[in-house]
Structures are given as structure tokens and as C-alpha cells.
Amino acid sequence: MADRYPLVYNPSANQLQELQSGDSLDVGNSSLKNVASVVGVLTATGFSGDGSALTNLPAGATPNLDAVTTQGNTTSNSISVGGITAATAAFSGSISVGGTITYEDVTNVDSQGIGTFRQGINVVGHSELDNINVSGVSTFSGRIVASATNNTIPFLYNNLSDLPLASSYHGAFAHVHSEGKAYFAHAGAWVELVSVGAAVTSGNVLVGTGITMYTNAGIVSATAFHGDGSQLTGVAAAGGGALDITSSLFI
Predict the structure, then answer these.
(1) Distance of CA 211 to CAs 145, 151, 198, 204, Å?
(2) 3-class DSSP state of 207
């Protein structure tokens, strides 16, 4: 069978001519209809209609974010992703998060609700806090400076055995409930404070380095007594005679 060539209209010659082998057919902006078959390559700006019979089409590829943003970097549509990893991010509006945000090295955080920090907060510089509610133990390595107001800080311990090491907390004050007394840490020991105007129920009272008041025996001992001894009784005179004290008694 001889080769077949399509007939085309040549407007210059006003006649029909055969399309020679190797030539191309340019239909301009017109539409091709009812084309039975095309041998070779058919090029067009677009195809529409049923493409189920097309073969050798490239597999669909999922574009990355760079390919998407080259088509335009804004969208009014909602985006749902499994996770986002970015070196930097800038948001000009508000961010609403229904779950948990995990982040490191964040500055200028304005939280209107409750912020939960699993491994602590490291604050460098001056910070202003209106109210702090601490349920655990707070440790301060520096000074605690407060205003001169009605500060309420109880130093309560149930028993003497509950007191911490006095050598580690020199200058600390504590109230021991079981003893009903107050103590302060000095020279590696807890020293009992004497209550003025109240009875001392146990222990001896030391005054300075030379006077001891033995509370259980009612005895006061000192290296020396000075002053008016006219009210003393049971004082034996030297040599076994009577002792008449009219001025001062020095022992």
C-alpha cells in the first residue's frame, strides 16, 4: 500500500495539495475534531476531554514547599500538616494552637494562660512578676530582698530532729512546735532563745560565759557575786560567827 498523505488547502494557490512527508501541519488557533489517529508527535497548548486512553504519561510527583511557593507565597486556604521543621519563622498575626508547643531559645513570649515548663526556666536579667504560687521547693543562691511590709514567713518544725544542719544554715531561725520554743543556728549548733517574762520549762539558761541558771534545781552559779547581799540567808560568817552585811558582799 502506497503512503498516504493528508490533503490540505493552499490559500495562495487556491487549491488542495498533499502534505508532503516531513512537513508539519499548523492549524493555528482552530480546534481539531474527530481526529482518528495521529502518527508521530501532536503538540498543543492544552488537551481537554477524556484522557483515559492516553499512555506513557509521567507518574504524578508530590511537589516540595519550594515548588509550591514559586507559584505564590500566600494562601487563604487552611493547611493541615503532620509536622513542620523550620530554621526561622515570622508571623505577623496571631497563632492559635490547640495542642502543645515544644520549643527552645524563644524570646518575647506573652502568655495569657498557664505556661508549663517541664525542665525549669532560666531567666537572665531583671524580671517582674506580679504573683508567684510555688507548690514545691524554691532555692535561692543569692539574697532575698523584700519590701518593709507584713511579710508572713513561718519557720516551723515539728520536732528538734527535723531541724536542718546548723552548720549549713548559720544564722537561721526556727520554731520547734514540740518544744514550744525558738532556736537560732550559731557555731554549728541550734541555740535556744530565752523567752522574757515566760517560765523556762526545761534546760539551763546561760547568761554570758560565767552565769548559769539551773532551772530544775533553782540554783544560780557564777564566778563572783557583786552588790547588796543583805537579803541573803544561810550565809555563814567567817570563823563560824555571825555575818553582818551593811554594805556590799563580794565573793
Answers:
(1) 39, 37, 19, 10
(2) strand
CB distance 229 to 245 below 8 Å: yes
Strand partners, 10: 15
Per-residue tens of pLDDT for the chain, all 251 residues: 456 666 666 777 776 667 666 666 666 656 666 565 666 677 777 777 777 777 777 666 666 767 767 766 677 777 777 777 778 778 888 888 888 777 777 777 777 788 888 887 888 888 888 888 888 888 888 888 888 999 898 999 999 999 999 999 999 999 999 988 899 999 999 988 876 666 655 667 777 677 777 777 778 888 888 888 778 777 766 555 555 666 666 65
Compute the half-sphere exposure of residue 144: CA atoms within 13 Å on the CB side of its CA. Answer: 7
Amino acid, single-letter form, for residue 194: V
Predicted TM-score (pTM) of the model is 0.43
CB 205 within 8 A of CB 194: yes
Measure the CA–CA gap between 211 and 221, rounded to whole angstroms.
6
Of the chain, the end-to-end C-alpha distance in Å amounts to 155
Sequence-ordered list of residues with C-beta below 8 angstroms from that of 250, at least 6 positions apart, any chain: 224, 225, 226
Residues 195 and 13: their CA atoms lie apart, in Å, by 132
3-state secondary structure 108-134: CCCCCCCCCCCCCCCCCCCCCCCCCCC
Contact 190, 174 (CB under 8 A): yes
Cell numbers describing residue 67: 515548588
Interatomic CA distance for residues 170 and 85, integer angstroms: 52
